[in-house]
Fold:
Amino acid sequence: MEKNEADREIYERLRAGDMDACGECVVLHSNGLYRLALRLLGDESEAEDVVQETFLNAFKSIHTFDGRSSLGTWLFRIAYNNAMMRLRKKKPATVGIDQSIYLDGETVPRQLFDWCCLPEEDFLSGEAKNQINEAISRLSEPLRAVFTLRDIEGLSTAEVAQILDISESAVKVRLHRARLALREQLAGYFTEWAERRGLK
Structure:
């Protein structure tokens, strides 16, 4: 059964008061919600709290869900809002999304080594994963949210726009900026990796 079909079935059962559907909903969506919350908050305990809050809020208000998006998209929206409330309590000031991206005082990109075309097994190494995760964590919250939802969770541009309550064109702009920033941050690491192996 496809995820959207499973979502529809779970939604109908939740509306009918089927408690088993709650557990199935958690199994289906908890990993994705946790990854989003962890990327945004950088704290495992807080991410777990966000996931719990998300399901509690969703199950309490399931009768307000209008079905215009998928159940999964709705849950991501709740999780995103919960994570953002926590972030706002921590951070009094944020950087505007329309500002230019600067890393170490320079506009991206500085280096253009095409690390995206390295063999897939290289991205599976612990060292590479750590480098990538650290680079993602350094993205601004708006860029990190879009990158996580679109490129990590595989949601469509339209779904990401619904979750973040922004236009599809804004999603595309933010995703482009996130990818440029990551490419800039990781270029040095993968350039050095390639040089060590005689690929550059």
Summary: Residues 93-120 have pLDDT under 50 and may be disordered.
